[in-house]
Amino acid sequence: MPAVVVVGTQWGDEGKGKVVDYLARNADVVVRYQGGNNAGHTVVVDDKEFKLHLIPSGILYPGKLCVIGNGVVVNPAVLVREMAYLEEQGINTSALRISDAAHVILPYHLEQDKLEEEKKGAQRIGTTRAGVGPAYADKSARFGLRMHEFVEPDVFKEKLYANVASKNRLFTQVYGAGEFDAKAMYDEYSAYARQLRPYLTDTSLTINEAIDAGKNVLFEGAQGTLLDIDHGTYPFVTSSHPIAGGACIGAGVGPTRIDKVIGVVKAYTSRVGDGPFPTELEDEVAAGIRERGHEYGTTTGRPRRVGWLDAVIVRYAARVSGLTGMAVTRLDILGGMDRVKMCVSYKWRGQTLSEFPRDIRVLGECTPVYEEFEGWPADVLDRCRREEDLPAAVRKYLRRLEEVARTKVVLLGLGRERTATVRLEPIF
Ligand code: GDP
Ligand code: IMO
Ligand code: MG
Question: For 377, how many CA atoms within 13 A lie in the half-sphere containing its CB?
Fold first, then answer.
């Protein structure tokens, strides 16, 4: 009857959606606790691909309560669209619950995200332009709009008109851009508010009651450790807390209620935005991984930057989230290579660093210290469904990762399908 948090250990897109979908079979409640529709979680069931941005991946099983927690920033237009998309696919969304304290993303946040990125030019973060950063900035500045205010027409109107007036001053006077029409925005978004109102509740209470009742609760992280606003490669980060501690704040549960934390590790590394990336490859190895792995963003379609597995990063993720286990995904994509490499420490100005440096200027100067491993054939993993079937070369690679990260591997992803998963240890 545990509460389990699933977090990304790298720069996002590790395969959290697939891992959550796999674990959700035995869960009663699945909770998103941070981020917004900057996330893109892909789940493949019976050859059918589902792309989820805001709704927890547990929605694909009937009868699981799916919660959008208070730490999430919700774009109502996107949420309504995602619900309609799922309904069209025959997925019932009535088990969705939205925190009344979650903040709302409005069109001016998207505009601000875009204008900020354009202003930064070469220094841009490479955001998904989903308005996530500006919405969290407004939340911290204490003039954001919460869901419970959004669904009260009078409160929504008053706050919206005030916020649009102030954003319009910013857009015209600072950025030289155009203005928003508060009335048009109010009319469009009021319709979403009416649609979403029945799903609102105090989800902290819902989740805590589920834990009290001995139910299995799964927390679905979005983004990844190195995109965490405090623990990531600042400023090339997102504006929330993807790490496990974020689940407590973003769902309203105490740390004493969390039993396990599973870190999702892609068997190599990818990054979709800008910022330093020590093991990045730009050669034919990268091209091969990108093509075999279809490494293009789920949300933006951008080609993802790729490189060898950086175990220094995973060790760091294990520390800041207190990982109890790792789910290693996409081992199949590395299949067919003669040799594979893993970074086990960095060299920086003559020193060996075994711990991840906080300062991105240091990180930018680090060169990876690699260990080489024998590769494994591409097709054997297709047939592997049990630990015993794993090639010796794969086991060796995983053992070394466990040593550096000081965490055991509990789950393996060997393909996109729900069934292409090997469980080494029970999680629920
Ligand atoms: P997320 O953001 O962490 O949920 O990851 P994304 O969905 O953005 O990207 C991961 C991609 O890898 C998706 O297309 C998944 O379907 C796919 N995937 C997940 N696990 C595996 C795996 O073990 N093998 C392969 N080949 N694909 C996987
Ligand atoms: P999932 O949940 C990968 C990256 C963006 C950019 C930075 C800030 O699918 O793993 P933002 O729009 O959040 O202000 O962008 O964070 N980013 C992600 N990269 N996967 C994600 O989510 C991401 N969400 C944000 O590319 O570098
Ligand atoms: Mg993704």
Answer: 8
